[in-house]
Amino acid sequence: MGTDLHAPLGQNRPAARRRNRRFSLAIVFASLAVVGILGLSLYAMRGDEALRQVATNVPPASKPEQVQPPSKPGQNPAQQQAGMPRSDPNSGANVERTLTDDGSVVTKYTPRSRDGSGPVMIGTQRIGQDPRVAAQPNDALLEDSPHGRLPIVGPGGQRPMDQYARPWSGARGTRIAIVVGGLGLSQTGTQRAIRDLPPSVTLAFAVSGNSLQRWMQEARRAGHEILIQVPFEPFDYPANDPGPGTLLTRMSAKDNLGRLHQAMGEITNYTGVMNYLGGRYLSDAAALEPVLRDISKRGLLFLDDGTSAQSKTAVVAKAIEAPHAFGDLTLDGQLQKDAILRKLDELERVAGRKGTAIGIASAFDESIDAIRQWSEEVSQRGIEIVGVSSLASESVGP
Predict the structure, then answer these.
(1) Which of left, alpha, beta for 362 (phi over 0: left; psi -120 to 50: alpha)?
(2) 373-376 long-range contacts, CB within 8 A, separation 24+
(3) How far is the C-alpha of 185 from the C-alpha of 362, rounded, in Å?
(4) How far apart are CA 354 and CA 396, in angstroms?
(5) Distance between CA atoms of 141 and 160, rounded to whole angstroms?
(6) Peptide bond into 160 cis (omega under 30)
(7) Which one-letter DSSP state was computed for residue 339?
């Protein structure tokens, strides 16, 4: 009987030993896992300053204040801290733009020597501002004058109409620019236009408006491209007076340029100038030429609102190779939302034929409501709303 009892036990001893070995290995692996976890925990609790600050919520110890050496003339502190002056990509080139017979612009680059002060860091040129600083002007594109700070072409050839332009997709589809003018004349209308209109809509500020600098900053932060709206002499002047500072055909070119510069100095960060009225002035090529030449020389575009059939803008602008554009339709001649929506549909048909179109409106409630509604629908039809500067070089006349 003893033999019968011990035989099964003897037969099961190898299996028992195998179970014991598996159990021992499991204990070993479990121990290693525990050791690993403890090691990671100790590593996370190491004497790292940033980790201790997060864990204890104690502010870091203050570092000794570092005094920066004074900046060199023409060099901002950020540039000096980087150890190398910065420059625009075109600072080592002469840039010549030529208008050909077919209306296209040929740009010629030829090398020119730098000032020999040593190596420079070339910054990448871009269309449009970084949105984080869109309300701040580029000081390199401004000059001081008795009329305030006026726009100029930068040392590397960069123009304000490029710096402050609203970037677009670059797609070869149908493009429409909507320009809403009269901003600054009414506080509620200006505020509503900036708040409710899509950022792709261009806003034009009347130079006779109020708080223009504040409104400009809000519009730029909201993503809008902006223009300044300058009063020009209409045919029925002075019965119809556009306001103070109006450019007049009977005045000398010097006086008219003084008034233009006074208007330009009101704000910054705009891509161009747009007329307010001005049928008589725009029809006088002799009066118009020095004004368009000055606008172009400063790297700005001129937008003719398209309301004067006798305008000489196209002839003069082509002759002096000035960036210019024309309004195709006035959208709110009839101040009713349904009528404005019909005009917007008509503008869409014009763009379908030409590839591009520009619509002009004012900052009335009915106009803002209609443009906002239409803008929400038009993108679904493959049409892109762009800043007016993107169409300026392609506009060849009304």
Answers:
(1) beta
(2) 373/341, 374/341, 374/344, 374/345, 375/178, 375/197, 375/198, 375/200, 375/201
(3) 11
(4) 12
(5) 7
(6) no
(7) H
Give the count of alpha carbons within 13 A of 370, CB side only: 25
Q: What is the CA radius of gyration of the chain?
A: 34
- Residue 42 CB partners (closer than 8 Å, separation 6+): none
The answer for 205, left when phi > 0, alpha when psi is -120 to 50, beta otherwise, is beta
In one-letter notation, the amino acid at residue 274 is M
C-alpha 301/C-alpha 292 separation (Å) is 9
Which structure tokens are listed for 290? 């020095």
- The whole-angstrom separation of Cα 46 and Cα 213 is 53
Pairing, β 148-151 against β 142-145:
antiparallel
Contact between 377 and 198 under an 8 Å Cβ cutoff? The reply is no
Kindly give, in sequence order, each residue whose CB lies less than 8 Å from that of residue 224, ignoring residues fewer than 6 positions away: 166, 194, 197, 199, 201, 202, 203
How far is it, in rounded angstroms, from Cα 162 to Cα 210? 26
Model confidence pLDDT, tens digit, residues 264-290: 999 999 999 999 999 999 999 999 999
Question: What are the average pLDDT values for consecutive 10-residue runs of the chain, which has 398 residues?
Answer: 43 57 63 57 43 36 39 41 55 64 60 68 60 91 97 94 94 95 97 98 97 97 97 97 97 98 98 98 98 98 97 96 97 98 98 97 98 94 95 58
Tell me which residue of 105, 348, 106 sits closest to 340, measured CA to CA: 348
